[in-house]
Amino acid sequence: MTPEDIPVLPRGVRCGDDRVRGLRVLLGPERVLMLDQIGDAVLRRVNGTDTIRTISEDLARTFCAPRAQVEADVIEYLADLAEKRMVERANG
Amino acid sequence: MADLPLAMLAELTHRCPLACPYCSNPQELTGRDAELSTAQWADIFRQAADLGVLQLHLSGGEPASRRDLLELVTAAREAGLYTNLITSGIGLTPARLEALDAAGLDHIQLSVQGVRAELADRIGGYAGGFDRKMHVADHIARLGFPLTLNAVMHRENLDDLPATLDMALRLGARRIEIACVQFQGWALANRAALQPSRDQVARAKELVRAASARLKGQLVIDFVPPDYYSDFPKACMNGWGSTGLNIAPDGTVLPCHAAQTIPHLTFENATARPLAEIWHDSAAFNAYRGTDWLPELCQSCDRRDVDFGGCRCQAMAVLGDPGAPDPVCRKSPGRAVLDDLLSQETVDIAPPDFVYRR
Ligand code: SF4
Ligand code: SF4
Q: To the nearest whole angstrom, how far is the Cα of B252 from the nearest Cα of chain A?
């Protein structure tokens, strides 16, 4: 994953509300990931159109954090999900 | 207060065109007359979602043997559940798959009995099954369904592991579950015929390790090693009554699919009592919940909160005592019984014939 990559949730992976526990979750085949505030903020911006750079800039503005740091964290987070095949690159 | 369940397995029916000798269904199968209606299942799905269940696995038997599969998937999605279909593929026509796609089915788990028609059809006890399954797999891929291949491995096919991985890649699966047969239900009647040898298992583990590294990001490999060769038990169901539940075809609510082999437990039916009450208050769910009930050996063990003493049904099947530590455990007295079974059943003679699930 690089800043120019466009992440997307593949079919069969989706975010949702766990209304009973009051949490946001990421659901995939045989997997339930409870999302913290950061994970939720990242995945809400994963739309199959925006690059990691755009997503990171937006997050940096929203949370008043240094962009370079945010970008490194976003890449790490999404690369880990990609390894589990819960995130793909829309740009191939 | 107990945790809330995350996943529910709905055994829609015990009917199945195949007759796999490793089937985890009970040796006493439930007939069609006793199966729940569409409306009863839909009600259970809603209750499950209200209780905290996020993922639903539609299983069987063969779930496609239910004529109302489409209605059931629709009801599950309306209840807000992530819906997974566990199927042999037999009975899923292209038209049915398209309808399931439109209804929002999230994921398909396709079982394979082998990578060669000859072996696969002998294991499944169904001539022509392999070819039909491959057609179904093509349609699944064409519709873009996320696919997991489900390969149950045993003495006769464990050496086909590389070809099984190739098949997963060829079919465009994102994930493969390589589960060495677990001895429950019909598999118990075929243990000697199915038990792999220690060498086979060692080779398989090495292969899986190498393939996982090689296929990283392309194919997720989940490997379930055969219990009997492990030193410590698995945390069966993540702990009894902690994260999951099963519904049998007639609505009986079970802490795990083999729980009915434990004779002193009585199980309640979802058509007679609300699911939440059964989960929280029924005797069967509380019998082995948590760790208070564990014997002294486990109480003083540092793995107590890791494996919760292992599988109750395995303790029952091997030792006749559902309250004993899982006999897989090296520290437990039951291990000697398991080792005896292993040495009797994996000697290098021709294995016995299969007892097919009928
Ligand atoms: S294991 Fe075989 S016989 Fe049992 S339900 Fe699955 S396909 Fe049918
Ligand atoms: S003694 Fe009990 S808790 Fe410890 S490993 Fe064995 S089964 Fe698990």
A: 23
**Averaged pLDDT, B256-265:** 92
Q: How far off is chain B from A69, nearest CA to CA, in Å?
A: 25
Q: Which ipTM was obtained for this model? A: 0.91
Quote the percentage of chain B above a pLDDT of 70.
Answer: 97
What integer pLDDT is reported at residue B351 of this predicted model?
64
Q: Do B84 and A30 touch (CB under 8 A)?
A: yes
Q: What is the pLDDT of residues B146-175, one digit of tens each?
A: 999 998 888 878 888 999 999 999 999 999
SS3 content of chain B, % helix, strand, coil (to 5): 40, 15, 45
The answer to whether the Cβ–Cβ distance between B55 and A32 falls below 8 Å is: yes
Q: Is A92 an 8 Å CB contact of chain B?
A: no
Residue B276 lies in a domain: no
Answer yes or no: is B169 within a domain: yes
Token representation of residue B343: 């040495």
Q: What is the CATH number of the domain that holds B84?
A: 3.20.20.70
As for how many domains chain B has, the answer is 1
**B310 by DSSP, 3-state: which?**
coil
- B22-31, B313-322, B346-355: the lowest-pLDDT one: B346-355
CA of B290 to the centre of ligand 1 (A): 32
B38 located within any domain: yes
- Residue B147 phi/psi, 5° resolution? -130, 135
Contacts of A12 in chain B (CB under 8 A): 106-107, 145-146, 174
Which pLDDT does position B201 carry in this prediction? 85
3-state SS, A59-82, equals HHHHHCCCHHHHHHHHHHHHHHHH
Give the one of B55, B106, B216 whose C-beta lies nearest to A83's C-beta.
Answer: B216
Task: Give me the mean pLDDT over the B110-121 stretch.
Answer: 86
Q: A with B: how many residue pairs have Cβ under 8 Å apart?
A: 58
Write down the mean pLDDT value for chain B.
90
Q: How far apart are the two ends of chain B, measured CA to CA in Å? A: 41
Check: pTM over 0.90? Answer yes or no. yes
- Which residue in the set B6, B51, B177 is minimally distant from A32, CB to CB? B6
Please report which ligand is nearest the Cα atom of B114.
1
For B245, phi then psi, to 5°, come to -150, 160
Q: State the residue range of the domain holding B163.
A: 7-224
Query: Of all protein residues, whose CA lies closest to atom 1 belonging to ligand 2?
Result: B298
Structural domain contains residue B111: yes
Which tokens is A73 given? 């964290």
Name chain A contacts of B216, Cβ cutoff 8 Å: 83
Please, are residues B195 and B342 in contact by the beta-carbon 8 Å criterion? yes
Q: Which ligand is nearest to the CA of B299?
A: 2
Residues of chain A with C-beta less than 8 angstroms from the C-beta of B222: 30
